[in-house]
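User: I'm writing a tutorial on reading structure tokens. Could you give me a worked example: one chain, its sequence, then its tokens, then a sentence or two explaining what the tokens reveal?
Assistant: Sure. Here is the example chain.
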Amino acid sequence: ITGTIRLPDTLKYLGDNAFYGCQKISGQFIVPRDLEYIGINCFKDVGFNKIDFTRNIAIEAILDNAFMNCKKMSGGLVFPSTLKYVGPNAFNGCEYITNIVLNEGLEFVGTNAFSNLKSYKDNNNTSKYNLVIPSSCKFLGGNLVYNYETKTATFSNTDIISAFNDTAFNSFLIAKNNPSFTLSDSKTIVFK
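And here are its predicted structure tokens:
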């Protein structure tokens, strides 16, 4: 399958393993308007060169490994305001993604969700992109403990957030006034 892949706008759920391992699928995937969930391993190891969320108004969850190792995927990722959950390894290994905009409303980013994104580095081996963790975020995968009673998260090591392992952002910033995180330092936290 080559070219643009369009599924009906009324589709609500793409199930686990739906296109898993279809490496010869290429071209662009336009996320249907009403799609709410992308299942575990749904597009793992698929050969997409781009994914487009601009028409979608309903996505709530991108589950574990959903786009893992889509190594040809390029361009930026801009998510709709409805997205609440990005599972572990969801975009791990999508090496040519050039920028990520995390939406306000996002609550959970799983371990290694955006790991191994190589193309953030320019010719000088530095990044021109910053990543802002939205104030709505309650969980960043790796090296933190989330307390469900108090609804707070405490980082055990602010130098390592494995949701973004081996990703060359210029900086990681937590949006001001995020009530969900308890940090050991009251200053602005920048993750290198």
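What the tokens reveal: Residues 154 and 169 are 22 Å apart (CA to CA). The chain has a mean pLDDT of 80.
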